[in-house]
Design goal:
single chain; alpha+beta; Hypothetical protein af1432; Beta Polymerase, domain 2; Alpha-Beta Plaits; five-stranded mixed beta sheet; 15% strand; globular; HD/PDEase_dom; RelA_SpoT; GTP pyrophosphokinase; TGS
Length: 762
């Protein structure tokens, strides 16, 4: 036998031992779990996967089968799932990486395991088109399957966790990509499913690979303060232990230290140093209740005992006992003042609550009588409500892949508030939810006709952000309908998806109307509605899609007349109509008819040249304003803090700097962002909308319109006032020159009696 043959044999023996040891640990942990003992089925899946991946190695050099075993180990030991999930974890890469198909898996292991494996298998080809994000496509398929069986996403999180644990073997650019995806989607998803331990590790590993230097600094400082922290922990818990023993509890007290990622995040948000983070240490009390049915009462008994030892912080008590978080988390948090003068948070949990906090959704099954291993018993909890919301998002496809990801991301809220209905029913909402979010969470009709709300019996606008404990009564009007600006008022995915769906339906009706108007106009002049004619019309109005053409005609923002016939027939070339390029939110201020007749033709949109200096600001004035695009998301007007964005066709869009779309562009396309300055001289009008609210009385509307129209000589384009129970809500569309005009109008209106709220709508 040659040396090479000897080395190969030794390597095979070492691999064999590595694989067998890992599999034996998996089986032992499974046998020690609460599940039915289907060792034969797991063995069958292991042998099948082992054969399918034979001869393949990971970048780390270990046999590939070690990855599926590790994922199955996480699924079994850290999430607490059973044989179906363990088998699916062992098989999760077989279809993607080998010649075996989902049908092969179904024939050997049944439809349930095959369905889960299919959901875990990445897809090729596009359901969103060639330009779509592969991440979005894969995530959408994952969620589609998840809506049928939640174990798909739990196994995927386990898969991602092992990939993060072994990310050292990947090149740097791949590390950044995977770490970024993990922090953006998978860590919030793990949190939303109650997998706090896994969520923390995912965040920490992402931080480690994206910011290795900062991670190393915080790790070093944590190590330097470790001895002092242990000493503080021992001194703080000593009297607590004596009290718990006196009360006769079986308990465990754990020291909980903030993760490097959590510390770094707080340093960034609060703009403080490591030494200024005072809540690095926390204490967790885990007890076995004397009576399972009275575990909540026993938590409060422990709380009372603690407050006899230490002073508590009255504003930092968190009762998750009677109102568990949406993912099932239960505990009582209290912050106590130690003898060293430090505030220390104490988390009080029963062993059941602790298991749910560690293993999330899966741990619920252990405490449900007759829970099925092959499925989840239907339970009307907030988690199922969340899953239903995911289904609604999936049922209403987003036209853009990244919009879809954003919709899902919106729904993975990590911070929650409790809000009450007028009848005292409690609703769990994401932090920063608005009145409009709440309205849509109750019913789509309430949301679509919402005009405002009474929060704690006080009138508030649609955009008002709610806080825990608020009691909310939604005010509606049948004459009020969804507005495009509402997208900027909502935080939850459900509300955003509903609003966008309604706007699309409304747009389709407008497009149909526009198409009919165009057909009638062309027929009147005996022009055939051919593709060439439609293309010329699109070019005239500077739109790329016929839907946009029909939309503009239906809204009367695109106007055609006899003077356009030759161009439509292709007989002569003409510059685009001034309705194009997004130019429908302002009109020239012309003092005389003669000047209007002499008005120059519309200039073409500015195209950014190859050697354009992106460091210098661009100045917007009356002469060049038509060369830029004003998208419908935020409508900046002179005086607004504005930025420019170079789009894929090298044209420049103008956005408010606070616009949500602009925030996304800044994060994703930083090299395309331009500084914008205004150089306007009150010779053009722009659209602006203000909202009014207050106590209804006779003559109020007349006072408002008199100030705006007569005293300030500002044109009112549209005025909508609704009233209910003596409270009115009004929206006024105006033509103004700039931001100063809006500010002056608002200042003048503040002098009107009974006007309680005046604000500009973006």
């Amino acid at each position: 036998m040659t040396d090479d043959e000897q080395k190969l044999k030794e390597q095979e023996a070492a691999d064999e031992k590595l694989i067998n040891d890992a599999y034996e640990k998996l089986i032992n942990d499974y046998l020690n779990s609460r599940h039915r003992k289907k060792v034969d089925l797991i063995g069958k899946a292991f042998n099948f996967a082992r054969q399918a991946h034979k001869g393949v190695r990971r970048l780390s050099g270990e046999p590939y089968i070690m990855h599926p075993i590790a994922v199955a180990q996480i699924v079994c030991s850290e999430i607490g799932l059973g044989s179906t999930s363990i088998c699916a974890a062992l098989l999760h890469d077989v279809v993607e990486d080998t010649d075996f198909t989902v049908e092969d898996i179904e024939n050997m292991f049944g439809p349930k395991i095959a369905q889960i494996v299919d959901g875990l298998t990445k897809i090729s080809g596009g359901i969103f088109g060639e330009q779509a994000s592969a991440q979005a496509e894969n995530f959408k398929k994952l969620l589609l399957t998840m809506s049928e069986d939640i174990r798909v996403i739990l196994i995927k999180i386990a898969d991602r966790l092992h990939n993060m644990r072994t990310l050292d073997s990947q090149p740097a650019n791949k590390q950044y990509k995977i770490a970024g995806e993990t922090l953006y989607l998978y860590a919030p998803l793990a949190h939303r499913l109650g997998l706090y331990k896994i969520k923390s590790e995912l965040e920490n590993l992402s931080f480690k690979f994206e910011h290795p230097e900062e991670y190393a600094i915080i790790e070093r400082k944590l190590e330097e303060t470790r001895v002092l922290r242990h000493q503080s922990f021992d001194e703080f818990t000593q009297p607590i232990e004596a009290a718990l023993q006196k009360m006769g509890f079986q308990y465990e007290i754990k020291e909980r230290v903030k993760t490097p990622y959590s510390i770094w995040s707080k340093m960034q948000k609060k703009h403080v140093s490591f030494d200024e983070i005072y809540d690095i240490l926390a204490v967790r009390i885990i007890f076995t209740p004397k009576n399972r049915e009275e575990e909540v009462d026993e938590c409060w008994k422990i709380y009372v005992a603690l407050t006899k030892i230490y002073k508590y912080h009255p504003d930092r008590i968190r009762d998750w006992l009677n109102n568990p978080k949406a993912n099932g988390y239960q505990a009582l948090h209290v912050t106590l003042m130690s003898k060293q003068g430090l505030w220390i948070e104490v988390q009080i949990r029963s062993d059941r609550m602790n298991e749910i906090a560690e293993q999330g959704l899966a741990a619920h099954w252990k405490y449900k009588e007759g829970a099925e291993e092959n499925g989840i018993t239907e339970d009307e909890t907030e988690l199922n409500e969340w899953l239903r919301t995911i289904k609604e998002i999936l049922d209403d496809p987003q036209p853009d892949a990244m919009d879809f990801l954003d919709a899902i991301k919106l729904n993975l809220f990590s911070s929650e508030i409790f809000v009450f209905t007028p009848k005292g029913e409690i609703k769990t909402m994401p932090a920063d939810s608005t009145v409009l979010d709440f309205a849509f969470s109750i019913h789509t009709f309430l949301g679509s006709h919402c005009i405002g709300a009474k929060v704690n019996h006080k009138l508030v606008p649609l955009s008002h952000r709610l806080a825990s404990g608020d009691q909310v009564e939604i005010l509606t009007s049948k004459s009020h309908h969804v507005q495009p600006s509402w997208v900027n008022f909502v935080t939850t995915a459900k509300a955003k998806a509903k609003i966008e769906a309604m706007l699309r339906r409304a747009n389709r009706e407008i497009q149909k109307k526009g198409e009919e108007k165009l057909e009638n106009w062309l027929a009147k002049y005996n022009i055939e509605q051919s593709p060439a004619v439609l293309d010329r019309l699109c070019k005239m109005f500077d739109v790329t899609r016929r839907e946009a053409l029909y939309q503009g005609i239906g809204e009367n923002t695109f106007l055609i007349g006899e003077k356009d016939i030759d161009e439509i027939k292709g007989k002569k070339k003409k510059h685009s109509n001034n309705n194009g390029g997004g130019w429908r939110k302002f009109v020239p201020f012309v003092k005389a008819k003669k000047e209007e007749e002499k008005k120059e033709e519309e200039p073409e949109l500015f195209i950014v040249p190859e050697k354009f200096n992106r460091k210098k600001p661009i100045y917007i004035n009356e002469k060049n304003i038509r060369q830029y695009i004003f998208p419908d998301c935020c409508h900046p007007i002179p005086g607004d803090d504005t930025l420019g964005y170079i789009d894929n066709r090298n044209r420049i869009e103008l956005h408010k700097r606070t616009c949500p779309i602009a925030n996304k562009l800044k994060a994703s396309f930083g090299n395309r962002i331009l500084d914008v300055k205004w150089d306007m001289h009150k010779t053009m009008f722009f659209d602006a909308t203000i909202r009014l609210g207050g106590i209804d009385r006779r003559g109020l509307v007349n006072e408002v319109t008199t100030i705006i129209s007569n005293q300030m000589s500002v044109d009112i384009r549209k005025l909508t006032f609704t009233t209910e129970d003596g409270i009115f809500d009004g929206v006024i569309d105006l033509r103004v020159h700039d931001r100063d005009d809006v500010a002056e109008i608002i200042d003048r209106l503040k002098e009107v009696d009974d006007l309680k709220e005046i604000s500009q709508i973006m």
